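Lay summary. Proteins are chains of building blocks that fold into shapes, and those shapes determine what they do. In this project we predict the shape from the chain. Here is one chain we studied, written as its sequence of building blocks.
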Amino acid sequence: MPDRRDDDPLTTAPDPAARLRSRLDRERLARHEAERIAESTLREVYVQREDLQLLERVARAANEAENVDAAIGRILTDLCAYTGWPVADALLVEDGVLRSAGHWHVADPERFAGFRALSRATDFAPGVGLPGHVLAAGEPAWIPRLAEDESFPRRHAALAAGLQSGFAFPVLVGHEVVGVIELFATAAAEPDARVLDVVAQVGVQVGRVIERERARLALEAANGALLETLQDVERSNQDLEAFAYIASHDLQEPLRSISGFVQLLARRYEGKLDPRADEYIAYTVDATARMQALIKDLLRYSRVGREAIRREPVDLAAVLDRTRRSLTQAIADAGAELVVEPLPTVVGDATQLAQLVDNLVGNALKFRSQAPPVVRVRAEREAAAWRILVEDNGIGIPVELAPKVFDMFQRLHPREDAPGTGIGLAICHKIVERHDGTISVTAREGGGSCFSFTLPDGPAA
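And here is the predicted shape, written in a compact code that computers can read:
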């Protein structure tokens, strides 16, 4: 048999101490790896927590700040605390270039005074300097060593202040770059992708603040323009009402004279002249009568707008009783039935509300069909108002013409078929408008119209 050597593994017994040492080494390596992973994970968690805290502070500043200036000021402070860098400023786009917005955070105002002064005095066109590159590209930019970057126009002022590196990122409204925020450090720093990702979100938040400010300013401008327009329209309406009142009042006397003389001619010379002369005189008498009616209605319309409203409790049932009495002859001539259901007491001007009801009921009698007229007046309760409805079975109003019936001088039927000046419903509209209500007309099923108007609830003034 061959000799066995002492170091033959088949004959050498395992060394328990060696096995123990090997096991301990493996455990020690595993523990170190676990500690390294735990430390790395904790560091990552800490970093992520810092990122989240920054974004939370920025979001809070964006939502709570009273204006853009206050929001940017707080956000610059938060950015410097997050990065540990001592200088931050904001620039906004004006006329296609970036200009300092006057917002800064500096750890040592005296030390960085020269750099701040130069930055405030410099406009940055697209592609010029650090902010100009961000404006042109729409993406963050980082300069690790300012001393080596000749494209940085403020290099000498920055170096004199001890600034060594900087980065900037865009402020975005949608895809539009509306500003740039830049930060500077007193030590060289290599680009940090994590930081750039975080500040990109900050740029979006600041952009939302600016977008809200733009919307607010636009709304204020629009409201201001609308207010000016309303004031102009109100002045114009007042002037027109005054003109209509004065013109109508002054026209009455000469028109009465013309009407009187024409009627005198008709009585004295009727049948004594040729038939054409009698026809001309008749036309003149009719025209002067229509002109008098028009002037009378114009005066009524202008008075509605000029006279102050007396707001007091008005019993609409009593108003309808007066309307029935004043239209007794018209109701009898038309063979009409006026049906009045229970009506409420509202707050308004009794005289104007009586004029409103008279006009609506009178129109229902005037624009009747072949069937015997039936006019029904009733009320419906709404949330904060009463709706009064005046329904008839007359000739009705075409749907496409309904919005026009409340316009001045609007006539839907020839004068030969229905007399009138076309001002009555305009007066109704003005009365309801002055009572803070609305008026409309709809077609009734089966024929006829339904005029309805609202009178808001409220205490008597």
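What the prediction tells us: The longest strand covers residues 97-106.
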